[in-house]
Amino acid sequence: MLTLHGVSKSYGDRVLFADAALQVNRGDRIGLVGPNGAGKSTLFGLILGEEPADEGRIARDRGATIGFLPQESAPVADETVVEIACAISPDFVALLRQVKAWDAGHPAEAAHPEDLHDSVHERFHEQNGYLVEAKAKQILAGLGFRPGHFDRPAKELSGGWVMRAHLARLLVQEPDLLMLDEPTNHLDLESLLWFQQYLQGYPGAILVISHDREFLNELVTAVVEIRQAKLVRFTGNFDRYLQQREAADAQQLAAFKTQQKEIAHLQAFVDRFKAKASKASQAQSKLKQIERIERIEAPAADDKKVGFRFPQPIRSGQRVIWLDGVHFAYGATAVYRGIDLEVERGERIVLVGPNGAGKSTLLKLLADKLQPQRGTRGLGHNVTVGYYSQYRVDMLKPERTVLAEALDTEAKVTEQQVRTLLGSFLFSGDAVFKRVEVLSGGEKSRLALVKLLLSPPNLLLMDEPTTHLDMGSIDALVAALQQFEGTLVFISHDVHFIRSLANKVLHVADGVLTPYLGDYAFYLDKTKALSARAALTAGGAATKAPPAKAAAPANKPAPGSGAIDRDKQKQQKKLQQQVGRIEQQIELAEQTKAALQRELEDPALWTDGVRASAVQKDFADVSAVLTQLTAQWEQAAAALEALERD
Question: Tell me: the pLDDT tens digits for 254-300?
Fold first, then answer.
C-alpha cells in the first residue's frame, strides 16, 4: 500500500535518512520509534508530501487514502464537536447542517434558497449521512464526550478535547493508512483503553509514533526504528523489539570487533613491510584488501541513561504525612467520608482506581491545595512538599530563558550539567534560549520537571508527570526518581513508569482506600487483573487486600501481653469505623438509586432521549457502586465479627 525506496533527506550537514526503505501493507500495525530529533515527524511529512525527499521515491497504491493526526494544534473554526467528527469530506458538514435545519423546521438558517428539501435529503442519504452521524457519536462517546457536548462549539473546549474530536473524525473516515503522532497524549485512562481496543479491530493499516510502551505492546505487530539514518524493522510488539535490538546490537558489536581486529592485523603487515622491496608487493596487496573491506559500523550508543547525579533533599522523619478522619465533598457530591492514610519515609505509592474516584482530589488534599471539611492533615518532622501539577504555574517566570530558569536553583550544579539535563527533556541547542512565555504547555511541564529534579523537596506529589514526554525523557525522569531518596506519591497511566518506581499501590474507589503492600506486579497478582493497563482503572479489587497495618512487627509481643490487647482494641475500633463509613455510603447510594428510579418511572423523561440515556447510565453506575459497597461491607463486617469472637 505504501513503499519508500532509497529515500534520503538532509538538512545542511545533518543527515536524517540515507537510502532508507519501508514497506507498509494493508493490516500492518507499525510503531515508529527513535530518539528525539531522529526524524520521526520528518518521515511523516515525507509520506504526507508536505516536504520532498532529496533522493528516492515514495509510492502508494492508487486510490489509497491516508489520515493523519498531528501531536498538537489541530485546526478548529466554528464547527460543533459532532460536525468535526462527521467531516468525512469538505462538503459533508454543510450538508449535515442543511439536513438538521430542514428537520428542525428552519431551512433558511443553513440551506441555500435553491436547495429543495428532497434534494438535500437525497444527497445526505447517498453519503449514508445518518449512519455517519451515529458512528461519529458512538466514537465520540468512546473518547470521553458526553451527549451534551456533541453540539457544543469546539472552540469553547480545551485543545486536548479538540484533538479528541479530530481523532474521532479520522476513525469515522477510516482511511486505508492511519498515521498517528502521540495519539494518547490527550486521553484519560478509560478513553485510552477504549481507543486501544478500537484500534485492535481497525480495518486499515496503522503507523503510530507513541511514547507509551504499554499502548505499543497491546497494538503493534512490528516496530520500525530510525537508527543511523536507516529504517530498521523488527517483528513483534515493543517488548519483543527491545529483545531483538539487544541481540542484534550484541551480534553487530561482535562482528565490528572481529572486523577491526582483521583490519588492524592487515595494517600491521602493511606498516611493517611496505618499505622492504621483497615484501612491497604483498604490502600493497594487503593495503588494497583493507580498502575493499565493507566496513561494519559500531552499534549506536544507548543514550537513554542520564549521566548526572541528582541533588538530594534533606532527610525527613519516618512518619511523613497523614490524613485522619478526612471528609471532602464537591458541593453535594461526597468524595471521602472519614478516610485515614499514613505515608512513611521512602515509600513510593502509586494511586490507582477508576476515573472520578478521587485520586487527584486525594493528591490535592495531601498537597494542601484542598482543605478537609472535617478531619486533619498532618506533616512529619522536617517534611517539605512539592506538588508537580501546580509547580509550573507558580514557579516559572515568563520573562526568563529556559536556561536561566533552570539555573535558578539552590543546587550546586554547573551550567554544562544543567544543559545536559535540559537536553534529556528535549531542550537542546538554541531551544535553551527560548523565553518561558513562548513555551507550549508541554514544554513548560518539561521545564518544571527539570527545576523540580534540580531542587527536590523530600515529599514529591506528582499527577501524570510523563504527559508530553518522549521515551528518552521518561527514562531520564525514571533515572532521577530512582536516585531520589525522599518519598513519592503519584498518579500515572504509564505502566512502564509505574513498574519502574512504585513499591506500594493504593487503590481508590467509592471513597475507600485499599493499600497493597507491594509493587505493581504484586498488585496485579493479588487482583487477578486481566491486563496491566486495565488494572489502573479497575473499580474494585478482585481479591481482598490486607489492611495497611497488617504487616507483623519485627518484634512480636508474647501471647497474652497487654500490647496484644491494645492492638486488638485498636484494630477493632478501626473496623467498626470502616463498617460505619461503608454503611453511610450505602445509604447515600440507595437514596440516589431510589431518586433515579423515580425519574425513570416518569413518562415525561422519555420525551428527551439525551436526558433519558444519561439517567439510565447514572442508574447503572450507582447500581454497580452499591454492589461494590455491599461486598466491602460484608468483608469488613466478617473481619469485625471474627475479631470479636477471638
Answer: 999 999 999 999 898 888 888 887 788 888 888 888 899 988 888 87
Does 304 have pLDDT greater than 70? no
- Reported as a single tens digit per residue, the pLDDT across 48-99 is 999 999 999 999 998 899 999 987 766 677 888 988 998 887 777 777 777 7
Q: Which three cell numbers stand for residue 153?
A: 462549539
Distances (CA, A) of 397 to 427, 464, 579, 623: 17, 22, 49, 49
Q: Which of 497, 579, 488 is nearest to 533 (CA)?
A: 497
Scan for cell 535490538, then name that residue. 245
CA distances from 539 to 28, 319, 357, 408 (A): 34, 29, 9, 43
The residue assigned the cell 520573562 is: 399
Neighbouring residues of 308: CB distance < 8 A, sequence distance ≥ 6: 417, 420, 421
How would DSSP label each residue in 131-199? Answer: HHHHHHHHHHHHTT--GGGTTSBGGGS-HHHHHHHHHHHHHHH--SEEEEESTTTT--HHHHHHHHHHH
Eight-class DSSP state of 378: E
380 is written with which cell numbers? 512529619
Alpha-carbon span 410 to 456, nearest angstrom: 10
CA–CA gap between residue 51 and residue 37 (Å, rounded): 17
The CA distance from 458 to 314, in Å, is 7
CA dist., res. 379 & res. 377, Å (int): 7
The rounded radius of gyration (Å) of the Cα atoms in the chain is 30
Q: Estimate the crossing angle of helix 159-173 against helix 129-142, to 10 degrees.
A: 130
Residue found under cell 474530536: 165
User: What is d(CA 15, CA 282) in angstroms, rounded to the nearest whole number?
Assistant: 39
Quickly count: other Cβ atoms within 10 Å of residue 379's Cβ: 17
What's the grid cell of residue 519?
509493587
Between strands 14-24 and 2-11, the pairing is: antiparallel
The mean-pLDDT minimum among 159-173, 469-483, 550-564 falls in 550-564
Tell me what the pLDDT averaged over the chain comes to. 84
Within the chain, what is the greatest distance between any pair of CA atoms?
111
Instruction: Report CA torsion sign: 81, 85, 91, 95.
Output: negative
Interior CA angle at 177 toward 172 and 179, to 5°? 85
